[in-house]
Structure formats: C-alpha cells, structure tokens
Design a protein that fits this description.
The complex is a heterotrimer of chains A (349), B (386) and C (322).
Chain A (H helix, E strand, L loop, with lengths): L8 E15 L8 E15 L3 E5 L6 H9 L6 E6 L2 E3 L7 H6 E4 L3 H4 L6 H11 L7 H11 L5 H5 L8 H14 L4 E5 L7 H17 L3 E6 L2 H7 L2 E6 L2 E7 L2 H4 L4 H9 L37 H5 L5 E4 L2 E3 L8 H20 L1
Parallel strand pairs in A: 3-8, 3-9, 6-7, 7-8
Antiparallel strand pairs in A: 1-2, 1-4, 4-5, 9-10, 10-12, 11-12
Helix pairs in contact in A: 4-5, 4-7, 5-7
Chain B lengths: L7 H9 L14 E12 L6 E12 L3 E5 L6 H8 L7 E13 L5 E5 L5 H7 L4 E4 L3 H4 L6 H12 L5 H14 L16 H12 L6 E5 L7 H18 L2 E6 L2 H7 L2 E6 L2 E7 H6 L4 H7 L50 E2 L6 E2 L35
Parallel strand pairs in B: 3-8, 3-9, 6-7, 7-8
Antiparallel strand pairs in B: 1-2, 1-4, 4-5, 9-10, 10-12, 11-12
Helix pairs in contact in B: 5-6, 6-7, 7-8
Chain C lengths: L9 H23 L30 H37 L1 H16 L2 H11 L8 H12 L1 H15 L2 H9 L3 H9 L4 H24 L10 H10 L8 H29 L10 H7 L12 E3 L12 E4 L1
Antiparallel strand pairs in C: 1-2
Classes of the chains: A alpha/beta (349), B alpha/beta (386), C mainly alpha (322).
Amino acid sequence: MTEAMRTPVQLSARSLTRHFTTRIPGRFLHAKRTVRAVEDVSLDLIEGRVTAVVGESGSGKSVLARMLARTISPTSGELILQGLPIAKHAKRTLDYASRVQLVLQDPYASNNPVHRIRHSLARPLLIHGAHKNDVENLSKAALARVSLEPPERFLDRYPHELSGGQLQRVSIARALCVKPNVLLADEPISMLDVSVRLGVLNLLRGLCDDEHLAVLYITHDIASARYLADETIVMYAGQVVERSRGTALVDEPAHPYTQLLIASVPNPTDPTSQAPVRSEHSSFEIAEQGCPFAPRCSFAMDVCRQSDPPDFKVGEGHSSRCWLYASEPEAVVEVALTERRREGEATKT
Amino acid sequence: MIAEPLDTETIAKVSESPSTETEGSIAPNDVVLEVRNLSVDYGVGDKMVRAVNDVTLKLRRSKVLGIAGESGSGKSTLVYAMTRLLRAPGVISGGAVTLNMTNDDEADSSLDLVTASEKELRKIRWSHVSIVLQSALNALNPVYRIGREFDEVLKIHRPDMSKTQRRNRAVELLTMVGLNEDRLTRFPHELSGGQRQRIMIAVALALNPELVILDEPTTALDVVTQREIINELLDLRSHLGFAMIFITHDLSLLVELADEIVVMYAGQIVERAGAIELFEAPRHPYTLGLLNSFPPMHGERRELEGIPGSPPDLSDLPAGCNFHTRCPYAMERCSREEPALVALGDSERSVACWLHAADSSERVPIELSRQVRTASASAAPGGDES
Amino acid sequence: MKALRLPRSPKVILGLIILGFFGILTVVGPWLAPYSPSATNFIPNLLPSAQHWLGTTSLGQDIFSQLLVGARATMVVAIVAGLIATCLSMTVGIAAGYLGGMSDEGLSLVSNVYLAIPGLPLLIVIDSYLPVGSRSNAFVIGLIISLTGWAWGARVLRAQTMSLRNRDFVEVARIIGERPYRIMFSEIAPNLLPVLASSLLFTILYSIGAYVTLAYIGLTSTSVWNWGTMLYWAQANNAPLSNEWYWFVPPGICIALVGTGLALVNFGIDEFINPRLRAAGLTSRQRRALGLPRRIRLGLTPVIRPPRNPRMTVSPARLVSK
C-alpha cells in the first residue's frame, strides 16, 4: 500500500451522482419517483484554492457537500482523496474525518446549545489524538486562528451568548481542530448579519492561503462567490451547467441560467439590467429529459428538449453545458439523433 | 361596503398607460402614514430593553419606504408596533402613529393607531393597512386549501359579500399576482415558495389597502424568484396605488426598489435619504460600511472590509453614539454624547452623526461627503461629482 | 448546564412545596413518629385525640405513626422505581431513535410489548414468583414496578430523539468523528433533560399508584409499613363501613397530595419546554403596576408612557391606552 502522495489536488469528485427514490403517495405498486438530486458532477478541490459552487435551493449543492463529506453515499461516481480512490461502500473512517471537514449554514444549530464552547472544541481535539493536557492550549490557539480574541472570554460561553458571526467562527475553529486538508463550507454566511459576512469570508480566504486548505464554498449568492473564488461552478437541478476559472463566468456568463441569475441579482449600479419575464411556471419545471433548464430557457431549441448537452468549451478555462455553444451545428443534430436511437433501443429491451 | 372589484381589463388598461401613479381623487403627495417619536420597549424596570427609540417617519401615497438594518436594529419591531401587532413582552412606550385613510364614501379620516381601540383597529386592519409577515411562507394553514384563506379574509372584512362574489374576488386577486385560478384548490405544500409568497401578497391586497407592509418577504426565496416578486410588487403598486413599507437587511435590493430609505441601528434611525442619494452618497459611517459589505458584481476584485465588531446588544449599549465602537471615524465626542437625527441642510435627508453636526470641528471624510450625480446631468448645470 | 431559573409560576411553587414537604417527611418520618406503628398495645378504634392525632386502628395501633413511617417506604420505592424506569426508557428510547434501522425495530418491538401487557396483572404475576423474603425489599419491589412503567417513556424519548437526530449539531458531531454512543448520551440526551425530568416525575407518580395497589391487594410484605398497607388493613377491617375515616382518609390524602405535587411540577416543566406557555415577559405585579390587563391579547400591543429617555430614573408610568 503506497502512502498517499502529496498532491495539490486534495479531493476529487468524478461523476458523482445521487438519486433519491420516493414513493408517489396515493398509488400502490410501481409508483416510485426518482429525484435526481445530483447528476454527474465532477470537481477538484485544490490546496490553497477556493472553489465556489453557486446554486439555488434544489440545485443539489447541499447533497453534493454531504457526498464530499461522506455522510451521504453516492449512487454512482467516485471520490478520490489525495490520490487514493475511496471505495463506494467503505465506511466513513476517522482518517477521512481528519482530512475533510464541513461547516454548516446555521451557527446556532451547529453548536449543541447545552454545551459550552470549550466542549465543542475539546471533542474534536480529543477524538483525533490530542493529549488531555494539551486541549486547553490547543483550543485557545484554534480560537485565536479565527480571530476570536481573547480566547478565554469565549471558552466558557454557551452558544446562545455569542453573536452569529462569532459562533460561525467557532464552527470554523472546530473544523480546524482536526487539521483537515479540505474544508467544505455549506452556505457559511447566509444566516449572518450583512456587516459581518465579509469578515468571515476574509477569514476563509486567509485560512485557505495560510494553511493551504482546499476550500469548497457553497452559496446561493453569486456576488460573494465572485469575491472569494478561484474557480466558480454553477449548478442547476443537480447538474453543473457552467464552470470557469476565477470569475470569468460572472463577467461573461455563457449559460442562460447563469445569465438569468446574474440579471436577477440586485444591482444598484446598473438598474437597467434586464428583468426576467414574469412566469407562473418558472419555479418548478425541471425537464426529465434533455437539458433541465429548457422549460425556462428563452433560447431553448429542439435539441435542448431531446438530449442533455455535454460540456462545451466557451473560453480559456471556461465551459458550459449548453447546446448554444456546440461548435458545429451538424454535430449537434448528429448527437441528438444518436441519443434518440439509443433511447429507442433501450426502451425496446 | 364592497370594494370596487378590479377586473383584468382594467388592469390591462392601466398597465398600458405610461404614468406610474394611479389617478384618482387623492393627490399623489398626500401623507398616508406618519410616525412621530415612536418608542418600543421589551419588558419593564431594570430588565427593560429599548428596541425602538424615538423614531419619526413619514410615508406618502404610492411611495415605497425601505427600512434597512441588521439584527438588533428594531426594524421588524417598529412595524409590528406601528400596527399594534407586537407580541408580549413588547410595549409601546411613546409616540403616535397616524394613518390617513380614504374611506369608500370618499371621506378622508385619520386614526392614531397607538391610541386606537380594538374596534377601530379592526376596522382599519386589512382594509386600510395590511402586512405580509416574514414567516408568510408558513402563515398559510397547511390543512386548508388556498381558496379558504381568501374566503376567510373576505368573509371577516366584507360580511355582505356572497360566496360567489368572494370566489370571484379571489380569482381576480390571483390573476393580479400572476397565478392561475386552479391554485385555489391546492394546498400550501403543493406550491413553491414563490407562489406562496405571491398568495400572501394577494391576500394582503384583497381589500385594496392604502398601505402594505412587507417584512423581509423575499429573504427565504431564491434570487430569481425574488426578482420576479419585486417586479410584481412594483407592477401592482403602479396599478393600485398603495404605499409600501419594505423591510429587509439587503440594502442593495432597497436601492432598486425604494423611493426613500431609512437605515436603522440599535433601534434608532441613523440615516434617511432618497434611495439613489443614499447609495451614491451615504452620510453615516454605518450606511457606508453596510454598502461596502456587498461584494460588487463588476470591477476589479479587491479585499473589502465589512464592519468590524458585532451587531449591538440592546441590553448593553455603549455610551454616546450606539455605533461609535465599530466606527472607523469615531471622534472623542462620539463616546460621550448621542447624536440626534438632524436634517442635512435644507434637503429631505437627515443623519444622526457628529461628523455632520453644524458645529463639528473635524472635516467630513471624503467618502461621506460625496455629491450625488443627478440623473439628468445634462439638464442641470450644477450636477457634478466630487 | 444553563443556570436554573427559579420558577415564577405559582403552580410550580406550590408543587415544589408539597414535594419538599413529603421529601422531608420521607427522611425524618420514622423519627418523628410518637409510637411504633406496629405496636398493638393501645385501645383500638379510638377517635383522633391529643395522644393519638389520627386515632387508632382496630388492632390498637397508632395511625399517625403508621402514616409517618409509611411515608418513607412509599416514597423510596416510588423514587427508586421512577429512577430505574427512567434509566431504562432513556437507554432504549434514545438508542432506538438514534440508531434507526433494525436496532430501532427490535427495541421498539420490546417496548411495544411491554406497553401492551397490562401493568397490574404483570406486576401481580411477577410478584407472586418472588421469594417471600424479598417482598419486603424496597429495591426489589421498585425494580419490578419499573419493569412495567418504562415503556411509555421510551416511546416519548424515541420520538424526541428522532427529531433531534437530524439537527445540525448532531451531523457535525458525526463529521468530527464522534462515536454513536457518545452522540446519544453526551450530545442528544442533555437536550432532552426537560423531557427526561417530566418522564421521571410521571413515572414516580405511576409507581406510587402501582406500589399502593400492590400493597392494597396484599401482595407486599405486611411487615413493611406504607400507605398502601394501611389501606389494606383498613379495608380488611371494614373501616369504610364503620365510618372510621381517620384510618383510610389520611393515607389517601397523602397519596393524592404527592400526586398533585408531581403533576404541578410537571406543568412547570411543560412551560419550560414550550416557552409559549410561559407568562410572557411581564410578571403580574409589573402588569398591575402599569395598569395593563391581566391577559395581553395579540393584536393589541399595550401602550405605556414612561419618560422618554430610558437612561433617566423611571417614574411611575401612566396607562394611556389598553
């Protein structure tokens, strides 16, 4: 067994997919509905880099985070931690926990209200091998790293005695106690007051740079993604619809959904930005077949409704899953026809 | 008295007209709501916490007033107290709230909501002022269909409407917010968040009130739905002519939506100005900090600071100016005396900050003394930027 | 632990006083008793008098002494049974709720079986198998009573645990790497303290009833004095028919009082769990001082007029509008 090589790519996801099957109420047999929460998502988390995943609720971003944290197992796809693939049905080990940590959205819900901060920080330290006598100093060091000074003031407090921003820093400190390589942050600032959000974002950036963490930043707010990210991924209906290095996709959005998202963000500097057409059906429709965004897309073509678009390159380090960017129109039709044929054969068997 | 039903033809006709305000017997500059020195406390005695301190506001017909603030600002407490919907242990400890209304018989009347009796409050609630609550998404009773929600509201406030009339009105209201009439037979859980919020807005408009209060109506919705709902609201406002109070922590949203913005901190108003003016030329350090807390969508990426420190603890406010412990421009005076809200020059703007006091010896920092670019710069020769 | 707030509700205070009183009685009862409860050397069937505060039984025993001595056995057995039952229900309930799957199925099956079997017949059956000597052992009796009383608490705790299981802090504990048993008893259980306390009180109440019933039908050792045994003897000697109220009424009242005390404190715990039941914010004294109505109704925020600047001393406020 070779030791995991020190590679800049800390955690890799390859074609992660997660389906949930639910029974349709009111029907008896054969009445199952599959919710495709995450569909064929691949990404790399690289040390010293922040990868932002932007999506609305229902886009599958939280399920993705849970799969990366291994609290949910994927239906298919692969996880590779520091070069070593993780077997799909292997149990989540303590070793994995010491390398990959997760920070959640609601600081007051993530901290047990009956325990003091001291306890919250001591547990991860003790579980991962710290000596009892070192716990106090290590806890204080962790609090100092997230700029909660003086640490003594916070150790004996209860979660409800801290403000949202302070408590979220405690959550980050707790995650750092195990000395992870990867930090997954699921909407870490959404529930914080506006004026403290940047402080926490700057903290994440600082930790990423100083401790060489690979950070995954999940958000619904594309502006904060733009502020923080070295790579940006936009998700819709469980799929990655666009990705780019840096913030290229915010400045030049390729996918119609990204364009809709950016146009919807309140933008006082540009009040003439186009507003989307009012539509009653817009919120719910996700197509089962073809591009999931097709029902809402003003550029939808026939091919969009028939088959799922592949990833097309749009620019340097910038790609989008949209038929609009197919390089050769004939190739587009060819692909569509092949898909139809394949589907037809599948249904026959 | 039955409110004049709006039919879709009327809406269509009005939407074609270029003017953004309805014409009627009421002049558009009339004041709909006037709040004077309102204070609200939680608890009494030593444990008392002043959640709203001496707030004065004025809202004109068909205008949108935005109230921005974070936790502890008192923005939600303010509007609940204004409408006497504040729960115990909140008590109103001072001030007056005057609502000016036009009744169906065209007569105008006024009512001080603070001293009003239960009977008077009941008469004006929903018919003249309605509220869309923060938890509106969960305010719909999950075991009843949507149609029943409308039915109840209309039954209570317009008892002489027949069942058919109520249903027709409900359909009208749904159409007004862009929903299909088949939603009436659905249950709340069958609808998306955006649709439920639209229904709450429709219910709030059921009796054509002069004032609609919305407390963080889009906070829990995704940004695309939020945009749709905001457009919807502005549309409805231009058709129906109601005034709006919109509360949110998202200042950037208010700049697009509101005519006038009031920024609150620790229960007090720290700045009041027109929306564009506030955005382009903030005067209070808190407003500036808040505006800088929103990462921009364009331009070069650079590190921004929010506002250092934490939101105020109302039971332990600092001496002097509530904000001075977090203020990068704090002076010695700020830790001793509390600044009052004073008008800036002769404009409608006001700010509560010693930097702008007439007798201040310090120079106002350039970030807080910008000139506002006027929209019609070519027409106004004096419009410039510093 | 969060600082314990002193309860303000008069119900709870009354309940605590009652329980406190009987708690003291449990400890000092036998020492306070003027005579030995089993001594039969007094004139039988005496009415209450200065020497015999509650009179004497048909066998010439002092009833008051019996009452005082009997308090200890009754309360101790009830408390022991309550504690054992609560421990059992906590272990089974939390484990079933947290672990889910087959563990949940198995544990739920066990608790459902115990729920379904009628308590009293089961008690009688188990009791009849006990060697006669141990029937006087408070702990043994407490144990078998707890066997019939734990299942209900287990179901409640299971439901509560299932709702807590999906909370963020439990997920975070898992992600940190906590072991399941630590999550159950170190993270989840402390959050269930109010429910556990309520369950404990309810189980003690049940246990008193069960113990008294067992004693009343003569299944416990008659050499150990408790309130149930008093009732047994009273019934056996036709005390109700002879109108010897001083024999059977006092123990009945004591049982009822303890039950009432437990129920009142349980109300307090309910209010603690559900803040909406609490008297919101203002105490009645404060409300009276301000002239506010007893119940503040929703939709009618009260208005008072203290001086404008809260930093000045507060002078008596005048009511302006209700």
